[in-house]
Amino acid sequence: MNVSIIRRILGYVLILEAVMLILPCVVALIYGEEDVTSFLITAVICLFIGSAMGLKKPNDNVFYLKEGCVATGLSWIFLSLFGCLPFVISGTIPNFTDALFETVSGFTTTGASILSEVESLPKCILFWRSFTHWIGGMGILVFLLAIVPMSGGTGSNINLMKAESPGPSVGKIRPKMRTTASYLYLMYIAITVLEIIMLVIGKMPLFDAVTTAFGTAGTGGFGIKNDSIASYSPYIQWVVTVFMIAFGVNFNAYFLLIFGQFKRALSIDEIRWYFVLIFSSVCVLFAATFNVYNSASTALRHSAFQVASIITTTGFSTADFNMWHGASKTVIVLLMFVGACAGSTGGGIKVSRFVVAGKGVLREIRSYVHPKSVENMKMDGKPLDKSVIKATNIYLITFMFVFVTSMFLVSLEGHDLLTNFTAVAATINNIGPGLEMVGPTENFGFFNAFSKYVFIFDMLAGRLELFPMLLILNPILWKDTVKQGIRRRHKPKSL
Questions:
Q1: What pLDDT shows up at residue 484?
Q2: DSSP secondary structure letter of residue 57
Q3: Which residues of the chain, if any, have pLDDT below 70?
Q4: Alpha carbon distance 9, 196 (integer Å)
Q5: How far apart are CA 349 and CA 292, in angstroms?
Q6: 3-state class of 378 per DSSP?
Q7: What is the pTM of this model?
Q8: Alpha-helix residue ranges (DSSP H) falling in 370-429
Q9: What are residue 379's phi and psi, to 5 degrees?
């Protein structure tokens, strides 16, 4: 394994984090808050360690998918370990485990919190919590590819993007991966700014608008109010609903629309099913909650908001859906697993995987009726490659294994089944709130340290599509790496 290039990438990530820590410093200075020192200290630490890691040039600039996965997993771990320091240093969250949980939840755009009261927090802390969503939404390494010229070549760059970008496959919008990453971030920034403008038009304070847009864009869900989005006007709630759905769409579709390829954009199967699921789920929730609220418009607004929030794995809330009818809660739990589109900022298993799996089931059923027939599965009008079908099946099996293992480990603490089930579902799918003791009005603070570390792993694994984190935990990888290092040190020098 190319350890030197991984070390260099980690150095770049820490330097980039140091730069990003300047923004909450500016917020602290604007509002005259003393917590600016906690961000400055963290920025200096990140800059020093990052620069030290990047001083030595790598022996080989080329890296493969293995290196891409390890670099991605370690990057997110480093990002979270250093990103939680402002919480600890400022005393906002003095317990390191809790601070790490909160930070991982932010960067992975999960939105699960250990805090029971957020409105009294300093503005710079609230800004950093929401900003971690925005950073993690598109991905820190995608941003790195956009601004830093990586010398490993297109093949190396796409391996890095594959390891971080959510979804079954990663395609190149433009021939060069750096150009692709730049286009993705430009679209990401543009839609974020548009949402801020729409929220300000609705008379939302600028600070609230920026932090809410960060949470929406990253499909994260950290609110700056104790009731999340419930206290804001119906107009603001509808705006957030629309933009949550927008950020759950595959960004490739936006690229096609921008360049006038409307037919190709509208022919994407995953996006069609994404909107079918949203529409049908809203109808079910509206019918189930119609008698709960005073008016049909209120019931429709809350139903649409919660469907958008859960399927895009954002986690904002306008109502305590933990108190809704059983059918409504069933729909919400099912949407937790579906998630948004591949290539979006949303989490979950992804609509495309369910489409592929569904097509596979139908093909199997038809094969029983016509045993001798040969049927090719198609997606977007094109035959599906066998490798995609295989990867989808392996992912679903691996997901179930990680989910069941996490459920068992968390259950050792002794909480009820629904709390444990939805807590794991909410973290591994990067959603945030669950049901019962982890409902939208509750938090994860009551879990012990062991369970929190299980959730931390689930959040990272869910955001990175499982395999980068599983690869890091594989002892064979590190044994081989150590052996390679020993062989290099003992290699005889040529005369």
A1: 62
A2: P
A3: 1, 58-64, 141-178, 478, 480-495
A4: 32
A5: 31
A6: strand
A7: 0.90
A8: 386-411, 417-428
A9: -135, 125
